[in-house]
Amino acid sequence: LVSRETQAEDTVVQVGVAAFGGGNFSVIAGPCAVENREELIELALQLKACGVQMLRGGVFKPRTSPYSFQGLGKEGLQFLAEAGAAAELPVVTEVLDVRDLDLVLQYADMIQIGSRNMQNFGLLREVGRVKHPVLLKRGLSATLEEWLLAAEYIVAEGNRQVVLCERGIRTFETATRNTLDISAIPLVKQLSHLPVVADPSHATGRRELVPPVARAAVMAGADGLMIEVHPAPERALSDGAQSLRPHQLEQFMRGLPALLQVR
Ligand code: PEP
Ligand code: MN
């Protein structure tokens, strides 16, 4: 079902003011994790002002250590929804566990399935049965075929609103957090009609690499970007090293229209 052979035209996924695919390009930005209400509202307004189309923020965080900050849960969902409403931006957040799905559906406009859950087949089936669009991140070590078959689980249940997200894969290289598989962007678009966005934040793990890698993804044909932004990355509770400061995102956004023009 996700193959180009069954559908030649690009799938367009519309989420409020954001749209992906079929020539539509949108930027999703926000903190790795929702941390506090006031800062998130202020950040959402700044993001809206610089041309972002969707707000992100994790409230259920898939942390390597069980002792690291795990997210604010339900309270975080309320802050995220409030910030999205204040800035008139749709919101996306990750669901880690099927038991939280009903709750997340009440607050989020789009459901994120993170890398670590790309092959959580029970969770994929459940999000396949809801009406919300789904952002499906590529697994840490998933092949393109495994990634597309994970999308197939969702679409096979009836939910055709799936956006794929290339967020880097594990390689032998340790200088960056992951390695962005740039060729995956045009190749997945050749194999599938689903939109593909790139996440240069998790792909690199390093703030200074985010703008150049984001530009490369745009030129490779991405239908959007997901970028982590924090008002004060040095005190972020997760992923501070890869989070842009708001003025850095603003600068990146200023250069984006010219890139989209020439590609
Ligand atoms: C995230 O987007 O917050 C996240 C945890 O990403 P990934 O699943 O790609 O590691
Ligand atoms: Mn993160």
Write the layout of secondary structure elements.
Elements: E1 13-15, E2 18-20, E3 26-30, H1 37-49, E4 54-56, H2 74-87, E5 91-94, H3 101-107, E6 110-113, H4 121-128, E7 134-137, H5 144-156, E8 162-166, H6 184-191, E9 196-198, H7 200-204, H8 210-219, E10 224-228, H9 246-262
Parallel strand pairs: 3-4, 3-10, 4-5, 5-6, 6-7, 7-8, 8-9
Antiparallel strand pairs: 1-2
Bound molecules: phosphoenolpyruvate and manganese (II) ion.
Summarize this, please?
The protein is α/β, with parallel strands linked by helices.
Can you describe what's shown?
Keywords: Transferase. This is 3-deoxy-D-arabinoheptulosonate-7-phosphate synthase. InterPro entries: Aldolase_TIM, Class-I_DAHP_synthase, DAHP1/KDSA, DAHP_syn_2. One of its GO terms (molecular function) is aldehyde-lyase activity. The chain is α/β, with parallel strands linked by helices. The protein has a single domain, classed as Aldolase class I (TIM Barrel). Helices cover about 35% and strands about 15% of the residues. The strands form two sheets. An eight-stranded parallel β-sheet has the order 9-8-7-6-5-4-3-10. It has a two-stranded antiparallel sheet with strand order 1-2. The longest helix is centred in the last third of the chain and has 17 residues, at about 245-260. It is globular and about 45 Å long. About 45% of the residues are buried.
